[in-house]
Amino acid sequence: MDLTFQLPPNSPLSAAVSEEGGLLPLRVPAGWNVIYNTLAARRLPDGRVEVNDSEDLYWACTARPPWLTEQEVAEKGGLWDREINIDAGWYDGYGFRVVVLDPDWDHVRASFTTSDLEEFVATLEGWMQMIIQRDELPKS
């Protein structure tokens, strides 16, 4: 872990980070299958937050609801009928990046880069919610 951030003391994200460290809590809506999540952080003695600096922090893909058959999903259409992936990581010189793939790296539908940890987490959570609950792909 090399990245350090000063989060506002009243921030919910700041409150979730301990000195022992661990995964940052993410609000992942039903309908996503988390392939991996290594978005870990710990509070440093000076109050700053240290975050994992990997390019491979988070990857999830949409999952067909188990109560729907493949035929029902096909009839409903929209994004339920496709595999949408969301990938997130830290890229030196750029910052955190969230990418929506439909379904793979040859089909990038949206990308967002920021050096702000809270903005990164909010975008990741917001895009997952938009895709599953509103059946929309985000725009870059």
Write the layout of secondary structure elements.
Blueprint: E1 3-5, H1 12-15, E2 22-23, E3 32-37, E4 40-43, E5 49-51, E6 58-62, H2 70-76, E7 85-91, E8 95-101, E9 108-114, H3 117-133
Antiparallel strand pairs: 1-5, 2-4, 3-6, 4-5, 6-7, 7-8, 8-9
What can you tell me about this protein's structure?
The chain is an alpha+beta fold. It has 3 helices and 9 strands. The protein has helices at 12-15, 70-76, 117-133, and strands spanning 3-5, 22-23, 32-37, 40-43, 49-51, 58-62, 85-91, 95-101, 108-114. A 5-stranded antiparallel beta sheet has the order 3-6-7-8-9, covered by helices on one side. A 4-stranded antiparallel beta sheet has the order 1-5-4-2, with no helix packed on it. A hairpin with a 5-residue loop joins strand 4 (40-43) and strand 5 (49-51). The longest helix has 17 residues, at 117-133.
Average pLDDT for all residues: 90
Order of strands side by side in the largest beta sheet? 3-6-7-8-9
Main β-sheet: number of strands, strand sense, barrel status?
Answer: 5 strands, antiparallel
Low-confidence stretches: none
Shape: elongated
SSE order, one letter for each helix or strand: EHEEEEEHEEEH
Distance between the termini: 28 Å
> Could you tell me the strand content as a percent range?
25-35%
> So how many helices?
3
Category from helices, strands and their pairing: alpha+beta
What is the radius of gyration computed over CA atoms, rounded to a whole number of angstroms?
16 Å
How many strand units?
A: 9
Q: What helical percentage do the residues reach?
A: 10-25%
